[in-house]
Amino acid sequence: VQLVESGGGLVQPGGSLRLSCAASGFTFSSYDMSWYRQAPGKERELVAVITRAGGSTNYGDSVKGRFTISRDNSKNTVYLQMNSLKPEDTAVYYCNARTVALGFTRNYWGQGTQVTVSS
Asked: Is the pLDDT of residue 55 over 90?
């Protein structure tokens, strides 16, 4: 199982970035996909989640209206479009895959990609 994030980097306040997470080794379309982030000294927090077929999304309060999560099940990839970035968005962003089947939860994590918002 692999989740490989990409697209992070340094961006000025007000700028945009698009993160990608390429999945392999499991049935991608059977998993809800999420983006989390963790800033130094803070707990990991949920940024956005999208259901298996992409029919439903949910966002953390701090990113609503600025970030958009999407997925392409034909490419086994989930995306996070981040607009109007703020310095407080600086964090390591992690991709997560989760499914519950027969009472068991499977959870996979990527290695993370750094996003730094600074002038």
From this structure: no
